[in-house]
Amino acid sequence: MIKHTRGFGRLFISALFAVAVLIMASCSTTKNSYYFKTLQKDTSISGFVNTNMETKIRKGDILNISVSSLSVPEDALFNQPTANAGAGSGFTVGADGTVLLHRLGAVRVEGLTRAELAAKLQKDLLAYMKEPIVNVGYLNHKVTVLGEVLKPQVLNMPEEKLSVIDVLVSSGDLTPDAKRNDVMIIRENGNEKQVKHLNLEDHSIFTSPWYYVQPNDIVYVMPDFEKRTKEEKKAQLQSTIALTTAAASFLIIILDRALR
C-alpha cells in the first residue's frame, strides 16, 4: 500500500510539473511595440516638416479675437462679441468674408492669416486705444480622435501647429491594444477625403507632411486584432489548464485515498 501511495505521489508531482511547463509555454512574450522604434542611437533627422504653417481665414470660421491695451474701458467693449458671433462667443466670419467689430465696423478678414489679422487690427485700433495688443485664434477648428486611445474626443485646435503626437498625448495616449505602426488620418481636401496610414514606430514620421494635423482631420488609432486574439487565446488556454490541473489534482487525491 505504501508503494502505491508513493507511486501516486510521484505521479502527482509529475503531473504538476507538466502543467507548469504548459503554463510557461502558453505565456510566451509578445512583440514589443513602442514609439520611434527605428531610432537605435543618438542621431539628427534632416528634412523636418516646416513648422511655419499658417492657414488662411475662411468664411464660416469662428475667431477668438482678444485685445489688451492701456485703455481698459475700450478693452472691455471690444472683447464683447457682436450679434454676428453666431456661436455665442467669438466672431463669425460672414458670407462676405468680414467680421463686425466695435469701433471698426465690418472688417475684411477672409484670406488673412491669424498673424496678419492681428497686425492689421493693432494698427487700426491705434486711433481708439493706447498700445493695443491683439491675439487671434480659431474656435471652430477641431480634430476628432477615436479608436484605441484612452480618451476619444473632439480636440480644439486654436492654432495651426498641432502634431499627431500632441493629439495622441492629449487623448491619454494609446491603449495596450493599439497598433502603433498603423494610425490612420482622414483629411478633407475639397470634395474628397484623403486617407493616410502612419507608422509611429518609424522615425520617418517626423519628415512626413502628415505629421501635423489639419482642421477637421479624423485621427483613428487602429486596434491590433492579432495581439488581441493571441491574448484571448492565451487567457482561454490558461483557464483550461487551471481547470484541468484542479480536476487532475482532485482525482489523484481521491485515488490515493481509495487505494490506501
Could you characterize what this model shows?
The chain is of the alpha+beta class. The chain has three domains: 2-31 and 227-258; 62-138, wza like fold; 142-223, Outer membrane lipoprotein wza domain like (Outer membrane lipoprotein wza fold like, Roll), CATH 3.10.560. The chain contains five helices and ten strands, in the order H-E-H-E-E-E-H-E-E-E-H-E-E-E-H. Strands 7-6-10-8-9 form a five-stranded mixed beta sheet, with helices on one face. A three-stranded antiparallel beta sheet has the order 2-1-5. Strand 3 and strand 4 form a beta hairpin. The chain is elongated and about 105 Å long. The model is unreliable at 83-87 (pLDDT under 50).
Can you give keywords for this protein?
alpha+beta; wza like fold; five-stranded mixed β-sheet; Outer membrane lipoprotein wza fold like; 260 residues; 3 domains
